[in-house]
């Protein structure tokens, strides 16, 4: 389906169906509601701009709801999870790494969660497990309030990629 067709179809969905489709991109209900209410979008880039603005204004509680839809880096979601296909594609670089890197990622994920109280969220698309591990270790040095800002930025990037796929059909 071409971008215009995808966008027209999305713009014509009921609010409930649009929110349902958007929740597959980001599991924060507040984000999905605001995105659905912002329709119609003239182009995918307009929706992406709107998404970034919405994420910039999300509360920490809203961000935490957005994190709930993401697996740990290096792990896979159950196939029935709303974004399992996207997460699998985005984290595909981890699969090529060795067992030691995967083990180190699992250990660092636990350390991160103990320090910050939530999963490590990072824009993983096109990155290897070793790159993601290095970023995770760097981010462990952040203060919690600074880390929430990093999470916000990473969520904006992930949402942009997913909206592009949803609305324009890009890989």
Computed structural class: mainly alpha
Name the CATH homologous superfamily. Answer: Oxo-4-hydroxy-4-carboxy-5-ureidoimidazoline decarboxylase
Number of strands: 0
CATH architecture: Orthogonal Bundle
What Rg do the Cα atoms give?
A: 16 Å
Sheet bearing the most strands, described? Answer: none
The DSSP helix count reads 10
Q: Bin the helical content.
A: 55-70%
Query: Beta fraction of the residues?
Result: under 5%
Domain count: the total is 1
CATH class, anyone?
Mainly Alpha
Helix and strand element order: HHHHHHHHHH
Shape designation: globular
- The CATH topology corresponds to UraD-like
Mean pLDDT: 89
Low-confidence stretches: none
Distance between termini?
13 Å
Overview of the molecule:
Helix 2 packs across helix 3 (29-37), helix 4 packs antiparallel against helix 10 and helix 8 (99-116) packs parallel to helix 9 (129-139). The chain has one domain: Orthogonal Bundle (UraD-like). It is globular. With 171 residues, it is an all-alpha fold. The mean pLDDT is 89. It has helices at residues 3-12, 15-23, 29-37, 44-57, 60-67, 84-90, 92-95, 99-116, 129-139, 144-168. The chain has 10 helices and no strands. 67% of the residues lie in helices and 0% in strands.
Features:
171 residues, 10 helices, mainly alpha, globular, UraD-like, 0% strand, single chain, 67% helix
SSE layout and pairing:
Elements: H1 3-12, H2 15-23, H3 29-37, H4 44-57, H5 60-67, H6 84-90, H7 92-95, H8 99-116, H9 129-139, H10 144-168
Helix pairs in contact: 2-3, 4-10, 5-10, 8-9
């Amino acid at each position: 389906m071409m971008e215009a067709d995808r966008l027209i179809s999305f713009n014509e969905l009921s609010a409930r169906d649009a929110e349902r489709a958007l929740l597959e991109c980001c599991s924060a209900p507040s984000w999905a509601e605001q995105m659905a209410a912002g329709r119609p979008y003239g182009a995918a880039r307009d929706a992406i701009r709107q998404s970034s603005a919405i994420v910039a204004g999300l509360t920490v509680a809203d961000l935490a709801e957005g994190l709930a839809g993401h697996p740990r880096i290096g792990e896979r979601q159950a196939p029935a999870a709303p974004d399992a296909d996207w997460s699998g594609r985005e984290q595909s670089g981890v699969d090529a790494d060795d067992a030691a890197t995967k083990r180190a990622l699992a250990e660092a994920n636990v350390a991160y969660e103990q320090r910050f109280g939530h999963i490590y969220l990072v824009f993983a698309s096109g990155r290897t497990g070793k790159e993601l591990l290095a970023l995770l270790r760097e981010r462990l040095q952040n203060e919690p309030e600074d880390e929430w800002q990093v999470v916000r930025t990473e969520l904006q990037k992930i949402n942009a990629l997913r909206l592009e796929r949803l609305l324009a059909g890009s890989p």
